[in-house]
Automatic annotation (TrEMBL):
InterPro entries: BphY/WalK/GraS-like (IPR050351), HATPase_C_sf (IPR036890), HATPase_dom (IPR003594), His_kinase_dom (IPR005467), HisK_dim/P_dom (IPR003661), HisK_dim/P_sf (IPR036097), PAS-like_dom_sf (IPR035965), Sig_transdc_His_kin-like_C (IPR004358). GO terms for biological process: cellular response to phosphate starvation. It catalyses: ATP + protein L-histidine = ADP + protein N-phospho-L-histidine. Its EC number is 2.7.13.3. It holds the Pfam family HATPase_c. Keywords: Kinase, Phosphoprotein, Transferase, Two-component regulatory system. It is an enzyme of class 2 (transferase). This is histidine kinase. PROSITE patterns: HIS_KIN. Residues 155-388 form the Histidine kinase domain. The keyword Kinase applies. The keyword Zinc-finger does not apply.
Amino acid sequence: MGLLLIPGLRQEIAMVKQHQQDLQQSLQTYQDLLDFAPVGYLQVDEENQLLWCNQEAQKILYLHWQPEQVRLLLELVRSYELDHLIEQTRDLQKPQTGEWIFHPSRDDAAEMATIKSLALRASSLPLPNGQVGVFLENRQPLLDINQVRDRYFSDLAHELRTPLTSIRLVAETLQTRLEAPLNRWVNRLMQEVDRLINLVQSWLDLTQMEANPNMQLQAKAVELRSLITSVWETLEPLAVRQHLSLSYSGPENLWIKADQARIYQVFLNLLDNSIKYSLPSTSIHIEAKILSTKDNDVASPIIEINLIDSGVGFSEVDLPHVFERFYRGDKARTHSLQDGKSIGAIVGNGLGLAIVEQIILAHGGSIKAMNHPETGGAWMQLQFREVMANFLSQDYS
């Protein structure tokens, strides 16, 4: 009986061996794919010892590693951000992402002079038995390209300012010497030249803000309610054409420490957009309130400003990109006159909201774009943390 079982047992053993070989071949195939992948990959055990890394990871991290080596990752790569990301992934048992500037370290001072810091992005995932896998992306080439692009555009903008100013001076001269109907062409020329001048200046402003996030601010006590009123008075002639009104709710005395000219520019851009995209005979509403947060167990006030219109709002595709430079919303972002005739897409330079975001960030605040669930229009939510507490008219604690 036992002899009859031996052939079947041998066949099972052969099948197991074949299955093992197939698995080994698959493992080797996946390892080869990872080894030649354009992104870095490394894997550590439950004690953060490096088990394996591909060629790209070795290149990104300036890592000299041999497969037979068993060493702590932190001994091979002096990146506490990477180490923290791995620990966080293991503790939470959830994929994590992180971005940081990696500064490679070398014992040889001469070699250090040739190594540059890199902007890295990492995505980690928990693996069985406490192991963690990490994909690494070197974002430095992309940042370098963006910097070169910005420098070229800035140089071009500087070069354009002088000829545009000269063209405008010529147009102004012609404007006073030509009579109707010829002067309407000069008026059209003036409008287009002014639009180009504004575009060039906006680009220069934005480039300067992004290059220097901690821009020099002329900070002082600014009362937001009166500043918003002043902005609306400037834009009111545009609002009257569309029969638009402005309503306000919230405290009257809201003081922040800010650069008044810059914050004026913020509300000028936001209200100008609301006027452009609002439907006729509707209202733009501004709601202000004071929020209380705890900072080291100390009450810290935040002023929140919600600007809501009754226009067409943002499409879901546009929302993640509205603060990007030169991003233009889809063709659905149009509105109609009272007789129902479409006036077509609103023309803008695509830099207004990008500038607004940079100014808000420079003030330590935040801005968020949404669609309001009731009006269906655009909803811009601003928060300011540099609140002048001594001027608040109510208890925020």
